[in-house]
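Researcher: Structure prediction, please.
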Amino acid sequence: MEATRMNASMKTAKGARLGLRPSVYRRAGRVVGRMQARRQVSQKHEARSVAASSNTGKVVNAAVAAAPPAVSEEVIDKCINAIRFLSIDGVEAANSGHPGLPMGCAPMSYVLWNEVMKHNPANTKWINRDRFILSAGHGSMLVYSLLHLTGYNLPIEELKNFRQWGSKCAGHPENFVTDGVEVTTGPLGAGICNAVGFAMMEKHLAARFNKPDCEIIDNYTYCIMGDGCNMEGMSNEACSLAGHWGLGKLIAFYDDNSISIDGHTDISFTEDVSARYEALGWHVLHVQNGNTDVDAIRKAIAEAKAVTDKPTLIKVTTIIGYGSPNKADSHDVHGAALGADEVQATRDNLKWDLPPFEIPSEVYSAMRDSCQEKGAAFEAEWNATMATYTSKYPEEAAEFKKFFLDGEQPANWADVLPTFTPEDSGVATRIHSQTMLNAVASVFPTFMGGSADLAPSNMTLMKAFGDFQKDTPAERNVRFGVREHGMGSIANGMALYGANIIPYCATFFIFTDYMRAAMRLAALSEIGTIFVMTHDSIGLGEDGPTHQPVEHLASFRAMPNIYTFRPADGNETAGAYKIAVESRKTPSLMVCSRQGLPNLEASSIDNVAKGAYVVHETNSSPDVIVIGTGSEVAIAMEGAKKVEAEGKSVRVISMPCWEIFEAQSDSYKESILPSSVTARVSIEAGSTFGWEKFVGTGGKSIGVDTFGASAPGPLLYEKFGITADAVAAACKEVM
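Model: Predicted structure follows.
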């Protein structure tokens, strides 16, 4: 459509496809040659894929395109170009951003948002809406343009302030800033993993609540991903699971534009992406001309929806920066403003004669007015279905509304968490974690998760439930396999889906190195994912330094908006779970021991909510204060007794969560750590980094500031000086 209206004087056989000036014909020729070679590979693959799929009858190859919209092709052209030029103008106004992706992805995005998706701009939290995730989050102006044009609460003034202080149009999409943005993306690959979590939740909720005569959950999850997303390993982890689980309501668009920051992707990325996804168990389609062939996009979506037992990858070959005469199909248009001259050349090329941020009224009519009207009708229809469901299935409806729609917490729910006394046998806090996890699962039907192939070690199985699998999607134990990074991002997607799911995921604490980016995004996105981490220190023993965390506690305590819990016994583990379950805007990190620990006399669920508290003191006027966490609290108490035997007064503090303690009132913090007592010692089997904020310049920190070693855990504690004698000696030194 756009191509038919380009300036004829600018066209040649090769240049017409790109809309290029004569000055770049030679470069265009080289580009076309590369793309033709890639297209031949893709066509061969597609022929293989269609032949195989036809034999199984799972793909409707003759599927017709979606019903022709009641909008003329001329207006559709204008809508697509409106998306392009709002994106161009936003980046230009900021002199910062990524215009190329929105320019290339505008046609597929128009079809999705204006013709295909069920969404209601007036209610961004409607539970059965279709979800859209821009995994290639650098192209954020695409999402902002779509939100504005389809009638969401994103005024044009916000787009004019793209990437500026206080704007709702941040540099990358942020779910906590912009209403209508489903997830925070930017780190490439994370969004497609979130999308897997979304599609997983749709499948799970549909299995739990839908009835043959009344379906209340049947939404699709759509995602646009780029070459960079496919290069990042986490996307393969999550997409492998999507294929394994048969997530038929997940449709991903691969923006195949062959450009990255360094230049053309053929310098580093030449694999057959379609073949890879086919091997992962996906249904694969190819739109060869995503720049102008809107009907092919419609048909591909229809074919994707016809396949219900597999996720679908639609590879859409596009030109990055489509319409830009001098920068299309180059890295120059990937991550920088076009510049005034090129913006004008692009306007001339695409016959867009409007000033920046001005949109034709017919575009608003075709997109904003239409989507608002259809959205209200979609939700009204669903409300009627929900009313029927409530009358026919009142018990299921009550559960669905209470927990999944309203996110209610049962009154006095924490009563299910057991408590412990010193007379109870001491076990590892990973065992206590399993006890708490199962207790939570008994009262929260929204509690769901699993481990990265370490369930018997992490102790994370919910005993009353089976495995979430392709054929048993109503179950709640998730087998993530050895895929930490993908697991963390899928769990975040489970939370962000919007059904008040409380997700948890687990691995060894050392392997947070594989998934730290996902944990950081949970904190940034303000979602309460629970990360259960076991084997927390050199105390795990013989596996050695490859598996022994040292710097990890310090690194997570440096991360904003995450609770890092290191419980010392059963009561502290229960208290940590109570806070984690109730904290829906802050993720929690449970750092649990492999070795058994005694239950403390002064510990309690309520004390954990203070972050730190006194577990032992000689009297109210201590000569020295000893602070410990986790497995070292008992060692601190043993060391204190040695100091007391010499006539000194000692206070021992358990500090299960730094972040919560630091949020307490100044008076409470002073009551625990009086400024008058400067003789202080900390003990923790990890890096001493950061402890100076509590022990001060006159204090001493006992810890592990080198890598560990392979030996039995008790011997390692002795060799590294994590002992009661070391505590006593340190106390004498600082007093």
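Model: Residues 1-65 have pLDDT under 50 and may be disordered.
Researcher: Thanks, that helps.
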